[in-house]
Structure formats: C-alpha cells, structure tokens
Design goal:
59% of the residues lie in helices and 3% in strands. It is built from 8 helices and 2 strands; from the N terminus they run H-H-H-E-E-H-H-H-H-H.
Length: 156
C-alpha cells in the first residue's frame, strides 16, 4: 500500500487560501471558469487519490485555474515552486475580460416581497449561517452569469 504523500507547497497554498476565503472545495471549484469538481479539488489539495492509492500533482493549467479562482497571485505560485503554473496564471489574468457591473436594478431589495420570501425560505430549508447563505447566493450568481455568458457565446 502506498503511503499518503505530504502535499506539495502549491497544494498547501491552495488549501490555506480556500480556507481563508471560507470556501468548501465545491464552492471553490464552482468559481473556476472551467468545469471542475470538489472531489478533484480535494485530491489535488491532498496530493493523493484514495480510490487508486496514487499520488496526485496538479498540471500547470489546472493549478493556474484553481489559483485564479482563489485570487492567488502568480508570485505566490512561483514562491511555492510552480513557475510553470504562474506563467499560465499571468496569461489568464492578462486575457481575462473585466466583469461588467451588475445593473443597479438587479438587487435583492428590487425584488417583489413574495420573491424575497421565496428565496429566504429556500435558504432556511436547512440550517445555515449567514455567511453560508451569502456564499451560496454568491456561487449561484456566478453560475448564472457563466450560463448567460455561454448562451451569448453559442451560435444560434
């Protein structure tokens, strides 16, 4: 049986940045511009895949995307020994289009009373802290924005 390896510095950096942001692996993965799962995020942070008892090292493009989702700078990736991913992250940052500001009418307060109550009832269906509710809404908003972007980009 293969011993569980110690995570490399870049995996530790990802975990610390994610935890500092108060995100689960699933929430962090949802922030990525590419499709990614929370379970794969965990494997990369742990540097280990339990089902195959094998070591996991993130490829440079994947690591750069993960770092971008957490706001990790290229300099920090270089300090962790991953200049290959840092170079890709710099390119991601250079080519990333600025996010347009949401319309001022798209606020929670702008919704009708029954719409606000429906959203709050769904959030209260399971016990959640205020912070968890805010992260859930933020993640949902990002997913909706990505869907809208994909719909606008796809040919009719």
């Amino acid at each position: 049986m293969t011993a569980t390896p110690n995570p490399p510095p870049e995996a530790t950096l990802l975990r610390l940045a994610r935890e500092a942001a108060g995100l689960s692996p699933e929430s962090a993965a949802a922030r990525m511009t590419v499709r990614f799962s929370g379970s794969r995020w965990r494997q990369i942070e742990a540097a280990y895949r339990k089902d195959t008892a094998s070591e996991v090292v993130a490829k440079a493009p994947t690591l750069a995307q993960m770092a971008h989702a957490l706001g990790i700078t290229p300099d920090r990736l270089e300090a962790a020994g991953r200049s290959d991913a840092a170079d890709i992250l710099r390119e991601i940052e250079t080519t990333a289009a600025p996010q347009p500001a949401p319309p001022s009418t798209a606020t929670f307060a702008g919704l009708e009373d029954w719409q606000q109550k429906a959203i709050l009832n769904v959030l209260d269906a399971q016990p959640r802290s205020t912070r968890e509710k805010a992260l859930l809404l933020h993640t949902l908003a990002e997913q909706i924005e990505r869907q809208a972007k994909n719909e606008n980009a796809s040919p009719s």
